[in-house]
Amino acid sequence: MLRSLLACAALLLSAGAVAQPRIAVADLTYKDTVREHFSYAAGYEKSSSRASMSARDSDFSSSERASASHRREAGFVQASGTVTRIEYGELRKFTADLKGELIRSQAFRIVQARPYTDAKPNEQIFDIINRIKRGAFPGADYVLFGTVSSVEWRTDQQPVQDTRNTMLLYSLELGVDFSLINTKTYQVHAAFSAVGEGSDSKIWSAGARLTPNRARVMQEVSRSLAEEALQQIDAQFKPLGMERRSDDRRAREDAPAQGRVTVYQ
Fold it and tell me: How far apart are CA 131 and CA 146, in angstroms?
């Protein structure tokens, strides 16, 4: 999988004239529709009173006459429904292995991207050009920007043959759309979708309570996503220096050697 990248890296290192491109891997951006059900019920009771007083003279020394009225109200309020809201943010759990694969290829240098820290994320989180201009990826020649297209947790059950037990399979699939963007020209040098998959299986018997190993499942997802993304980058992304060196080498190999006599039989 990494042969072509390693070959290009070795060629660059031997030439010494072309620097390794610096790539910043942005945290995976997502947009999600969240629906929340609410239910509210409450009783209330309200009371009020009013009083009046009169006197026969100004110093209230004589007998007084007072009257008062009292009123009480009670009721019950109940409401329920669904609230829908749009949530924006970044997943900061699935890029470490991708950075590691890029480093291991020896074809790139990785620079750290700055996280998106706005208090209330909105559609601006997807404006990668504006984020580049604001300095979110310092020192990077390219930004690998990923947007989550799907996240799906599954729980599947299958009976174990000749037993009363059941096999429970917990799995996670994460789909991401990637773009590799030049920070100077904003040109897209690679664009692809990649899927990461992970699973955890357990044998279940009546009365048992099982908890999936989510950490291991997410680790598998991260690693498989990184491997597929690197394959796509290898197939699509050819930095200018690498292309020139590869073309020069191919030309030298194809050109006939001077002074060599070719004998045909």
Answer: 14
